[in-house]
Structure formats: C-alpha cells, structure tokens
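Database export, one record per block. Field names are fixed; values are copied verbatim from the stored entry.
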Amino acid sequence: MDYYLGIDAGGTRTRCVMADCHGHILSFGTSSTASLGSAEKEKVIESLTNAITDCTESIQGFDGRIKAAFAGAASVVLEEERQYFCKLINDVDGISIEKTGAHHDIHTALKGGLCESPGVALISGTGSSCYGINKDEKSWQAGGWEYIVDDLGSAYYLATRALSAAAKDVDGRGEKTALTPLVFDYFKLKSWPEVIMRLHTEGFRGRPLGKKDIAGFAPSVSHCAEQGDEIALDIIKTGMNELAMMVEAVCCNLGLAGNEQKLILTGSVINNPFIRKIFQQKLRKLLPDMQICDSIFPPVVGALLEAMRISGIKADDEIKKNLKNSVVDICHFF
C-alpha cells in the first residue's frame, strides 16, 4: 500500500494525517509546534518526529515507506525555507519519503478549505496573512510579512494598538479608554512604568516576552469594543479595513471574478463573531460579490491533498468523498 502524509505545522500545534491513494484517512498524530518561527531546529525535528510517530505507530504493517509528504508550515515563505523544512521532515528517524514538499500554512489552508478550487484564504490569529490562487494556479500573497513591519489586523496588531492607546491615556495626551485598567489587569501590575519594564526587560511569567504574550491581550480589545469603548472599536475597525484591503489586493492581482471570488476565514481574531461582522462590512464596500465560505477540509487535509498532487494523484470525486467520510470519523482531532 502507498501512504501519503499531510502535515500542518502551525505556530501552536502540529497535526498530521496519513491516507492511502483512495483518500481513506488511516491515522492521525499531534505534537507541539514545529514552526520555524516559534521553535529552534532541534525542537522542530522533535515535534515532527512525535507527530509522525503518533500518526504511523497505529498503522498495522507500516514499514516506514511513505510515497509523498507535504507540510503547510507557519513562517515558511521563501523557496530556501521550503527546501529546508523538507530536509527536516526527511531527517525524521524511522521513515523514508519518496517525494517531499512544503509551503506556507495559508497555502494548505486554502487547498483544503476550497478543496483545490480557485479562491482566497485569510488568516487572522496571532499574525495575519492573505493568499489566493486562480484557475491558472497563479498565486498571490498580501500581508503575512511578520510583526515588525506587518501583521495588520491580527491579534498582535490589536494588542499593540491598544497598548499605545493606554500609554496616551496614562500620559494625558489621548482620550480615556477602558483598555487602560485591563492592561494593568492582564500584566498583573499597578503602574505604567512596571508595564513597560515587563514588556522590554523582565519578560512574562518568568520567560522572555514574545509575540504571543502580547497578542494574548487582543480579546480584551474586543471586549471593550463590544462594551462601547470608542478607542477599542476604532482599533478593530482600522484593523479589519486592513484585512479587507489584503483580500482586495489578492483578488486584483489574480484577476479573480465571478465564481472565483470565494473566501475562507481562519484564525481566532477573524472568527470572533463581533470582529467578523465588522470585517464583513469593510469587505462588502471593497468586494461586494465576494462569497465567504465554510472550509471544506482543515489545513492538514489540504497538506494531504498536496502530498497526493506532487506524487501525480489528482483528487477526483471518489477521493474527495472518502476524505469527507474520514474527516467525519476523526473530526474531534481537528
């Protein structure tokens, strides 16, 4: 039997699934993050090994040979990063892979979400990115250039804009906002100098302060906005407009029109009902015909479809049907 492996190496968790050539998912595995942007090389290899082992050890008679494997991985953008991630997969002990591929995780999110049809995927969680593919398989990305210069509309964006608003409130050079006391509550501190020291020198809970730690304040921004705080609401409106402009840029550069104007949304920020409604209002002004669709398959199945593709198998109706039935059986895993 030929085996095909799909890997979703997100910023928080790694998932993988194994299937046969007919699209029957045979097993699944999980581990901690294997993202190059979140972990060192040794940790990435360890997480990949744990997830793949978790996936393969339940397959009776598995001899370690895999026909093709494909990974969707956060922070994998450049071709050399893709090749490097493929090498890390091939370095996992106990398996031998005939063909290996890798791409940014938004690529596999789109491939799974629209089941290989043209369209656009928008991620807004800790970070943000937008990516589309047209009928000619041309792709375009807008955003996703990491938090120093981008990540607009993400949890990190909302949190840092909120911290800036709180600083102005404390100084008396900005409007009063309900965000300020929530900043103190979040960091469990009582003064603004203590907050700044925590942000820049002391770290968070005994470890260096990271992007995710700051992004964790984003739910408080949404809460304040829902309670009527104008500063918080303006931050969200500005962020959602940035996301809508990402989608517009992708559609324009790919020439997406008519039935190709399909959009899937993923990530904790954009799937917040209050924030999502604001995003939809901004999107309708720019792209009134854009259809927001539920994902058909999760990103890890998008990676599986790509593994089959690089091995020469195009997903026909039978394969898609088998995948849908298999996903139902293990939906708790996703």
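Remark 1: Residues 88 and 189 are 42 Å apart (CA to CA).
Remark 2: The chain has two domains: 4-115+296-333, 117-295.
End of record.
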